[in-house]
Design the sequence.
């Protein structure tokens, strides 16, 4: 049981780390978004795994559904931002998006 | 009917000057300053007033069938009682005529919105021995509780004679003033006696119309005072007279001396009026009425007795007093006998206070000792003002009031009046001896003569005092007008040492003045016509009456011998200083050729009044106490005067007419001797060159200085009242400056100190804290700014590192 859960958790952790690394390294805005998706999905894997193997029950699955919806919404907003940014700057390099720095 | 006619005539005479005043003062604003219209209007008003008064006098006399004049003299002693019986019979006969007593008209007049304008008329015979007195109400001013404030009238022989005298003299003076004040008929008048701070003379528009407006207002006030039927109304017009004199004395208001003199006159009169008010309060508290005569309703029944009826006198002439308490009974004393009748009484002392209070007002108004110092200063006014206000009328108001209020005075008050008059007449006469200003001499002689009148009234010579008032009014206004003529002719030179020999230049003035001087000096030629008659001018008769009364008084009360010696001595002094004035001014050689060469006789408009007045001054009193003027004047004399007053225990005996007549010849002779010797001394000193006057003055320098400084009265009052006031003022200002200013300055300093510290606290502590907050926040923000790179990836790295760090801490802190 534990080994199984650990396996899931491991997959979730790998996904999470991949996502974080992706976010930290990519200069492309879309790439960063992808990293975010990975992080979220890593978390989803964890939720679902816990719901399956612990007495968390259905709550975990519901939570993961929420996260998916949230991710979709976030992607929509973020892509819109990326498009607008591109329209204005002809690039989506996040390093160039430093107008708001202090 | 008679009462109504008299009332209407006197009302017209009284109100015309008011109309004149209103027209003149308002017309003056729009009219030309060069027009004499105002003067003619004023003369017209006052002259019509004179005609009304004179006809009123005639009507009054006719109504009484001239019983006053036909009455045999009181002096035919021995037959005295019989004559009184005659009088009674005569009166009885008149009562059968359509007697005025039955008349009570109720006339509503004076417009729709007037208050109750019930004009009551009431004619009552208040004095059993005298003819009728008419009294009533003209107009109700206000009714406060039981206090009626109304305009009443009280018409008797005194009122009528005063009305005629005042209006006549005022008419003459108005005419004279038209000439005297003609310099004011200009758009730009240069006042040579008023200096601006830059040394220039004051230039101002002429004030001709205003002068006449004030004169008219003055006449209105004076006539109102004489007509007044209650003591409160007297007070109202008393004050009006005061304000008019203030306006007229201060006519040259740009001159410092004139405005000071006006203030002085006004303030000194206020001192007397204070006493007057006290007297009024006593009268009101105890008598409950101010009216002289009875108050009558429409049906003719007597609602309330007048003041003169409320004080009762017994056969000896003393006031009726309660046998037990000694208080004076108010109202009919036979009513007191019925049991259960609550009588009103007044403590005797308070009756004295009431009398003294009213007399205090008269002291102020008539310039008696000790309030006499305002009158000489009041000579700052134009000379016609001096003639009208300060010789014949206004100062006469005080004497008039003493005469009018006579039934209310008891022996103590009369004695005070006598002594005040005695001091005044002597003191003023001595000052007049050394005065060199022609008007000042006349001013002091006025005070002195007013003293004679007061003395006469005080020693129970009711007729004598008022007789002197009327004759004095004529010759003193004449002399003032003469001096005005001299001043006008000499281009406003008033110092007698600069005159001399003026009779050659102004004969009319000199001659009329000489008549006035003889009149006031009381010179007479006995036995010119026959041995029993004396040919003399008016002043002799009236002064003779006063002196005779005082001699009779002194014979009855030997301890008061000064009351005879002083007036006798002063009669000599009077003759001396008056002839000194005349010799100094008109006789001898001119002393100042500049003045002499430029002086001239005054125009006709000024000399005609002089001539008219001089005739009257000479002959108005012809016949003396058997003469028409005296008999007319005393027709309604208070009942107790004729028989005198017998002394109560330890009291004062007041002489009756018999006693006076007994000493008349003696007193007259003594007074004549005094007057003649005074005249001779004046002639020796000033009319001839036998004595060097300057040398005499040098040798008597001490006395001369004392007199020239007016007995140091100004200095005395300065020391008594002014200096203490100044000291108190200085003390107050010192307290202000040290204590109050100190407190205020101290508190200001404390506040300044506190606020300084407050500022320091605010600036350093509060501001410091706030600023510190701000700067530190700013610094933090600035330092945090470094991490806000805007690099997304870096942020992610931070998050990661942060999370790892959090976990690391978590695991290290809670290893389990």
Sequence:
């Amino acid at each position: 049981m534990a080994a199984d859960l650990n396996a899931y958790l491991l997959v979730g952790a790998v996904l999470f780390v991949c996502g974080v690394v992706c976010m930290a390294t990519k200069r492309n805005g879309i790439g960063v978004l992808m990293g975010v998706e990975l992080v979220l999905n890593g978390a989803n894997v964890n939720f679902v795994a816990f719901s399956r193997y612990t007495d968390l029950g259905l709550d975990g699955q519901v939570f993961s559904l929420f996260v998916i919806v949230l991710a979709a919404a976030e992607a929509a907003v973020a892509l819109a931002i990326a498009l607008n940014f591109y329209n204005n700057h002809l690039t989506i390099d996040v390093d160039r998006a430093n107008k708001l720095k202090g | 009917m008679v009462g109504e006619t008299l009332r209407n005539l006197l009302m017209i005479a009284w109100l015309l000057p008011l109309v004149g005043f209103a027209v003149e003062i308002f017309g003056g604003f729009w009219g030309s300053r060069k027009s004499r219209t105002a003067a003619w209007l004023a003369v017209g008003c006052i002259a019509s007033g004179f005609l009304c008064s004179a006809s009123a006098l005639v009507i009054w006399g006719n109504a009484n069938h001239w019983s006053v004049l036909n009455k045999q003299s009181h002096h035919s002693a021995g037959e005295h009682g019989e004559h009184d019986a005659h009088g009674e019979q005569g009166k009885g006969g008149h009562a059968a005529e359509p007697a005025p007593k039955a008349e009570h008209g109720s006339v509503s007049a004076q417009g729709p919105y007037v208050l109750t304008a019930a004009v009551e008329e009431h004619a009552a015979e208040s004095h059993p021995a005298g003819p009728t007195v008419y009294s009533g109400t003209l107009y109700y001013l206000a009714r406060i509780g039981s206090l009626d404030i109304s305009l009443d009238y009280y018409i008797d022989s005194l009122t009528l004679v005063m009305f005629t005298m005042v209006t006549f003299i005022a008419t003459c003076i108005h005419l004279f003033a038209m000439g005297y004040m003609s310099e004011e008929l200009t758009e730009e008048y240069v006042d040579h006696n008023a200096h601006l701070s830059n040394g220039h003379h004051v230039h101002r528009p002429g004030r001709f119309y205003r002068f006449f407006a004030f004169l008219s207002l003055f006449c209105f006030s004076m006539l109102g005072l004489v007509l007044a039927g209650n003591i409160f109304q007297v007070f109202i017009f008393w004050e009006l007279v005061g304000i008019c004199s203030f306006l007229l004395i201060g006519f040259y208001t740009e001159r410092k001396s004139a405005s000071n003199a006006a203030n002085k006159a006004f303030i000194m009169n206020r001192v007397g009026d204070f006493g007057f008010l006290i007297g009024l309060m006593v009268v009101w508290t105890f008598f409950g009425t101010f009216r002289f005569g009875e108050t009558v309703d429409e049906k003719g029944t007597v609602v309330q007795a007048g003041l003169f009826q409320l004080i009762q006198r017994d056969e000896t002439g003393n006031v009726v007093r309660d046998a037990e308490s000694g208080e004076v009974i108010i109202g009919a004393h036979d009513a007191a006998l019925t049991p259960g009748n609550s009588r009103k009484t007044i403590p005797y002392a308070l009756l004295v206070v009431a009398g003294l209070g009213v007399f205090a007002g008269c002291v102020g108004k008539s310039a008696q000792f000790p309030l006499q110092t305002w009158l000489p200063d009041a000579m700052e006014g134009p000379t016609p003002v001096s003639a009208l206000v300060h010789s014949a009328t206004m100062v006469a108001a005080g004497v008039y009031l003493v005469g009018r209020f006579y039934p209310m005075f008891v022996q103590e008050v009369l004695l005070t009046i006598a002594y005040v008059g005695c001091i005044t007449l002597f003191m003023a006469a001595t000052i007049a001896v050394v005065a060199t200003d022609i008007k000042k001499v006349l001013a002091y002689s006025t005070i002195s003569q007013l003293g004679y009148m007061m003395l006469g009234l005080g020693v129970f010579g009711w007729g004598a005092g008022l007789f002197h008032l009327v004759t004095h009014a004529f010759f003193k206004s004449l002399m003032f007008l003469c001096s005005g003529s001299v001043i006008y002719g000499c281009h406003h030179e008033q110092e007698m040492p600069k005159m001399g020999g003026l009779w050659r230049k102004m004969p009319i003035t000199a001659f009329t003045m000489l008549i006035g001087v003889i009149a006031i000096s009381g010179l007479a030629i006995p036995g010119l016509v026959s041995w029993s008659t004396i040919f003399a001018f008016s002043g002799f008769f009236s002064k003779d009456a006063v002196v005779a009364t005082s001699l009779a008084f002194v014979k009855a009360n030997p301890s008061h011998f000064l009351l005879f010696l002083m007036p006798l001595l002063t009669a000599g002094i009077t003759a001396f200083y008056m002839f000194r004035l005349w010799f100094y001014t008109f006789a001898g050689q001119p002393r100042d050729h500049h003045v002499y060469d430029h002086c001239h006789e005054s125009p006709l408009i000024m000399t005609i009044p002089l001539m008219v007045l001089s005739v009257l001054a000479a002959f108005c009193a012809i016949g003396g106490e058997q003469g028409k003027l005296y008999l007319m004047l005393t027709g309604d004399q208070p009942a107790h005067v004729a028989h005198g007053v017998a002394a109560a225990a330890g009291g004062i005996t007041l002489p009756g007419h018999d006693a006076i007549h007994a000493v008349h010849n003696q007193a007259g002779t003594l007074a004549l001797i005094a007057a003649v010797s005074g005249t001779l001394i004046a002639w020796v000193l000033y009319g001839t060159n036998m004595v060097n006057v300057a040398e005499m003055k040098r040798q008597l320098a001490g006395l001369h200085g004392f007199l020239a400084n007016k007995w140091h009265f100004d200095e005395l009052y300065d020391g008594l009242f002014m200096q203490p006031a100044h000291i108190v003022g200085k003390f107050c200002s010192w307290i202000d400056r040290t204590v109050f200013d100190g407190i205020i300055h101290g508190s200001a300093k404390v506040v300044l100190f506190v606020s300084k510290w407050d500022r320091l606290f605010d600036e350093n502590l509060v501001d410091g804290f706030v600023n510190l907050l701000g700067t530190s926040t700013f610094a933090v923000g600035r330092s945090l700014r470094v991490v806000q790179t805007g690099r997304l990836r870096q942020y992610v790295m931070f998050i990661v590192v942060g999370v790892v760090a959090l976990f690391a801490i978590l695991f290290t802190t809670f290893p389990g």
Observations:
- Residues 40 and 70 of chain A are 9 Å apart (CA to CA).
- Chain A has a mean pLDDT of 87.
